[in-house]
Structure formats: C-alpha cells, structure tokens
Amino acid sequence: MIRIETFTLGPMSTNAYLLTDESGKRGVVIDPGMKPGPLLKRIKDMEIEAILLTHAHLDHIGGVQEVRELKGCPVYLHDEEAGWLGSPKLNGSARWPEVTGPIVVEPAEFALDEGQVLDFLGEKIRVFHTPGHSPGSVSFLLDKHLIGGDVLFRLSVGRTDLPGGDWNTLLDSIHGKLFKLDDDIVVYPGHGPKTTIGYEKQNNPYV
User: Fold this and answer.
1) Considering the domain 3-203 in this protein, what is its CATH number?
2) Signal peptide location in the record (predicted)?
C-alpha cells in the first residue's frame, strides 16, 4: 500500500507529493516545487526511486535539481516539454522575475507517454496524457488516487493562457480521460485541496 504525503511549496503554493512504500524507506517524488526545504528534510534518509513531473512549469520544477542531486534519482517528463526544463522562457521562470530567478534544470532521463505503466515501490502507476494547461501535462493513477497537476482542481480547472495552453484541449482531457474514471477516485491537484472525480462531475462550474 503506497502512502501519499503532501508538501505545499514556494510562493505559488504548489503541491508536491511524496509516495512511500509500507516500510517508509523508499519513495517517489512528484512535482518538487520551489523552496523544497520541507520535502528535502523529509526524504533525507530515504531512497528516492524517481522524480515524476506532471508538467514543467516553474512552480512544479523549482526543486527538481536539488532533489536529483541529493538522491541521485532520474526524472520523468513528457516529451512535449522535454526542452522546457532548460529554458526559463518555456518553463515560465523568465516571466515572473519577482517570484524566482531563471530556473535551468538538466534534461529528464526518461519520457512519459499516454498509456504507459510505471513500476515503482512495488506498485503500478498508470500515465494519462492530459494536455490543455500545457502540451505535455500528464496525470498519474495509482489504485484509487489520481495525481493530476494543474488539469483539474476542486471546483476549478487549470489556466490555459500560458504558452501551449488550450481551453478545448483541456476540456477534452477532463471529459475524455479523467471523467471516464470511477467517481470515487481521489484527485490530488497541483494547487489547493483534494477532491474526487464524482464531486467535480457534479459541481465543477467550468466543466
């Protein structure tokens, strides 16, 4: 049974997630954001198998290099955003100099794609390509838990006014993929509180 811990990091209050196995000695980090101190402290004595990225905007990748250097683990990112890690213009860090300096991260070691099944911590993690907020956005499904980045929030959805964003594509991702999942799937978004697929189907005013 994988456990999920949440760390709300940086000036944009981005949710980073730590998946741990039952022993608590092995983990996977998802979206290590800016100012990752609390996360780094938590994983200090753990083996981290990988860093998984839902997408490569500044607030989701700000802590990637620190986690990677501390734990020597590979990074996984969709190929649509392969060049974003090393480009402050593409990852947005050049756009908000009042928030952070330019973020430049070494390329991801592995690509993510639709339908891919990852094997970490003795469990299967299914990958959904869910573009719209950004072209390479993905969501991760493990058991009854969906870690979805900035695609679907509690009573809201991801913004589509950044480079590569598209409103119709976002709606297609939500209706065509996420809303086909069971209603009791718990959604862990990139910002804000958890929700469920069923609750958003019934109550989300944007979809």
Assistant:
1) 3.60.15.10
2) none
